[in-house]
Amino acid sequence: MKKLLDEFKVFITKGNIIDLAIGVIIGGAFSGLVTSLLDNIISPILGFFSYGGINGFSITLWKAELRIGAFFMDVINFLIMAAIVFLMMKAVNALINKMKKEQPAAPPKPSKEEELLTEIRDLLKAQAESKGE
To answer: 20 to 30 A Cα–Cα from 34, which one of 23, 51, 74, 108?
Structure first.
């Protein structure tokens, strides 16, 4: 049981779980903003073309009421959220790529031949200095 608790502590203190929690909180707030945009701006504009507004559009089939307008607005809500998340990810990826390009690349490690030649050069230089040349 102690091992399980230790593993849980490591899991919960990793940066990824904190990032996920922040993302969920911001996503919830953002969802409210998009819902407000739909309910207060887009739905009335689309409702202008239908009697009673798009949200109120429904079909009664036998005794069931199919609220097609509400479903349509939820689909639009999803598409707006997906498009904004897509654009945000493109911006983050562009920023990451820009940061990668700005970092200088590490010089390539010398090959075995270059290392051996460097050792030979250093040995010859040391011999020449010891002879007084």
So the answer is: 51
Gap between the Cα atoms of 38 and 18, Å rounded: 30
Count other Cβ atoms within 10 Å, centred on residue 40.
Answer: 9
Secondary element (H or E) of residue 61: strand 59-61
Interhelix angle 15-37/2-13, rounded to 10 degrees, is: 50
Rounded CA separation 91/75 (Å): 24
The domains located in the chain, with CATH, are 2-126 (1.10.1200.120)
CA torsion through residues 11, 16, 18, 23, sign: negative
- The pTM of the full predicted model, rounded to 2 decimals, is 0.51
